[in-house]
């Protein structure tokens, strides 16, 4: 019997969020590794699945294709979850979860995209002040959104918003650490997630380290190039 497929690369926070969500609900996926370095995401076969050439991509047993991690997680939980705790059917609760998913995509993950744009492709050897400000802004809002709750979206239980935020935040924390004095609730939440999320080390941390290593290596190379060019100015 065929299984749903998930096209992924472990360094991708959105892909990791989908993998962890599937594990949380007991969904057995066929994981399809996409070698981004070899530009497999630009092959005609992959572009037929996702013209945006991004990961992850979810292919259902009937070959229906879904893209965008937030949509994929919501679909998986709605169809395969044993209950609706992770993505509530109650419209008010769901709206709060949706808000945090949009925040993750529109604010938090944009910090990572800014790093990729500047430090991987833009030739910058240090974190730009704009990047640092974007990150501080995201951390500040996350601290406020948690309030007195153990989970985001003012939920009593773990939701896909927590999973999505965690995979991005773990990656960012390795590059621009969350200050436990300024953001104690956020720091406590991150510690809580270590015990609640499956495959934390082998999926989440391993993937986050791969992403951070790529960014740091590019920054080192960029600094060398800048210093070399300066010598001959």
From TrEMBL:
Database matches in Pfam families:
GST_N_3
Coiled-coil regions listed in the entry:
none
Q: Which domain of life is it from?
A: Eukaryota
Location of the GST N-terminal domain: 2-84
InterPro entries xref list: Glutathione-S-Trfase_C-like, Glutathione-S-Trfase_C_sf, Glutathione_S-Trfase, Glutathione_S-Trfase_N, Thioredoxin-like_sf
Q: Which Gene3D superfamilies match?
A: 1.20.1050.10, Glutaredoxin (3.40.30.10)
Q: Which SUPFAM superfamilies match?
A: GST C-terminal domain-like, Thioredoxin-like
CDD domains for the chain: GST_C_Delta_Epsilon
Location of the GST C-terminal domain: 90-219
The name of this protein is Glutathione S-transferase 1
Give the organism the record lists: Bactrocera dorsalis
